Protein: Phenylacetate-CoA oxygenase subunit PaaA
Organism: Planosporangium mesophilum
Amino acid sequence: GDNRLQGYFDAVIEADQKIEPRDWMPEEYRRGLIRQIAQHAHSEIIGMQPEGNWISRAPSLKRKAILLAKVQDEAGHGLYLYAAAETLGISREELVGMLLNGRQKYSSIFNYPTLTWADVGAVGWLVDGAAIVNQVPLCRCSYGPYARAMIRICKEESFHQRQGYEILYTLAQGTDSQKAMAQDAINRWWYPSLAMFGPPDSDSTHSERSMAWKIKRFSNDGLRQRFVDMCVQQASVLGLELPDPELRWNAERGHYDYTEPDYDELMQVIKGNGPCNRQRMEHRRRAHEEGAWVREAAAAYAAKRAARVPE
Ligand code: FAQ
């Protein structure tokens, strides 16, 4: 009965082994994973827009080729993650429907505009950097298909982070105005990047559950701190500043003290009131509608093949 199944599930989690699609799992575990993986997939797809904005205006052919490859990787991550979510018994069509009708979310970070070329650098360095810090522990997530998807995705994310860092490094070695442009981008992306890790632990509704089930391995604040500690050193190599006057080493804690992001702003952005929420959703809706003929043609072709009498 359910007790025995629950006991088996608990033992697998306890032993740090993987739950696989055909295994019994508590309904809440399944629903929680669908929520998180879908939100992650939607983030990758919506996340193509801020950088896609600069493909046609990249400063050189080489930069353009690199950016194109990065944005394509994000599409790949999205599809990969939708496939992982589908192993939990939900269809991609339903998932996309829930993004479009607003029942599922995507990361707050993609509701901020990319105003200059330096923003492409800051997104790569800070946003992909935050994504890596958040996602490396997900490679050890208790749900097999999600954990395995994360391994490949993290490898690509580290290339993305390096390309962003290199854009900023180049600008930082350039003219005064290029250096100022890089600094301005960091000033605007720093706090939204800190907010990517979610609300503080005291307000995080899912953390306790998700950590007990080993979906999440570290709390929101734990990962945020790790990200801050990592960025300080990297900023000093760039010769640029992180825009936080309170940032300083705390020898007692063995970490940098820092100013928290504005969590009221995070909640507003999550609710749909960020600077670009409307634009991002309109664009996605239009792309979905304009792609309807591709889906119909693919379905018609599959039906035709299925009906064909074997020779
Ligand atoms: N934005 O109880 P918690 C990328 C929601 S990286 C929007 O703490 P949880 C790569 C949360 O859903 C970005 N909503 O939640 C890339 C919940 O609401 P709900 C994607 C947020 O799940 C780079 C409520 O607040 N990465 O795409 C945010 O335990 C460049 C309470 O929060 C992932 O999704 C937020 N920032 O922890 C692509 C990683 N924070 O669902 C293109 C996987 C919280 O009850 C270009 N996800 N909420 O209505 C996770 O690790 C977790 O879901 C967290 C949130 C850490 C994001």
Observations:
- The chain has 13 helices and two strands.
- Residues 35-36, 39-40, 43-44, 47, 74, 105, 107-108, 123, 127-128, 131, 134, 195-199, 204-207, 210, 216, 220, 270 surround Phenylacetyl coenzyme A (CB under 6 Å).
- The two ends are 48 Å apart (CA to CA).
- The longest strand covers residues 248-250.
